[in-house]
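Protein chain data
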Amino acid sequence: MTTPSDASLTPSRLSRRRWLTIAAAAAGAVAVSGASATAASAASLAGQTAAAPAVVQSPAAQMKASQVMNWFAQSSQGGFFNGVRNGHYASAGVDMTIEQGGPQISAVPLVAAGRHTFGMVTADAVLSAREEGIPIVMVFPAFQRNPQGLMFHASNPVSDFSELNGRKVYVSGAGIFWRVISAKYNLTDVQQFAYNGQLATFLSDETNVSQCFVTSEPQILKGQGKEVGFLVNADSGFNPYQNAMVCMESTIRDQPDLVQAYVSASLKAWIEYINDPQPTLQYIKAEYNKDKDLEIEAKVFEAEKAGFFTGAEGWDPSKMARMTDERWSELYTMMRQYGILTKDQDYTKAFDASFVEKAHASMM
């Protein structure tokens, strides 16, 4: 999955007023992105026809809601797109609008300003937002195991994070994961360069190391015949829930039925998508991201399913989107220990696992 650095999604050291100010500009960017996506919807797959969205008889009184992704439409967001494509939200009584993300789109201010009901972030971004007075709450994480990592050339391998000392590493310096890992492993001798998202930069020198999503960039490069390896950041102990949906505390308080309907529909849509991804991947390409290479995207999906959606042990639908106090406590403690969070907070208010638990119970 190719996404912006986590720093761009994190309200680190910005005031609530500042976030609400930039929300207007970000919302405009979403609108432009949505218009572009609509123009691209006529694109058809080479040799294939995208699966048509299901026709659903909607309940008379539909609850309106919207959700925004963290980057352009792709496999790692597939369950949410499947919920729209196959009518799961409509069947649950939700009139759902879904929009892609992009380089100028940040979910936290958009949700905070009321531009979207739900937005895609990471668990560490939730804690950072709450420290800045933005009362967002996580209700549905798509990834149990975070797929962020550090990619290296097979000719110059790295077996442990501590071995990064003395190496050239391309990262977002403000990225929370890098700030934690560099502190934990005492990476004082790293030659740090700004990450620009370009694979050509990584390929220019076989001693280079670059941040990545291990389910994405390595798959792309392997398809080009390049030999690469990677470290998974989660193996360092820093493992925030990824591609997770948040809403405002006020939404949970004032519209609990909407949140429950959204979470229940999302769970059904994700399990269906993971069991049969191709119709949704074709839909994503035809309707949102016409440049997406479905052959590579299928490999990305398989990597996500094998070790990240529900953990390193592989796909287990009973674990999908579940959250635990232990995981949140570990994340909060680590972020406080390494100075990412500067004030104490009640981390239990950063998530509400009850909606996912009720959704699982309803499917038994």
In short: Residues 4-59 have pLDDT under 50 and may be disordered.
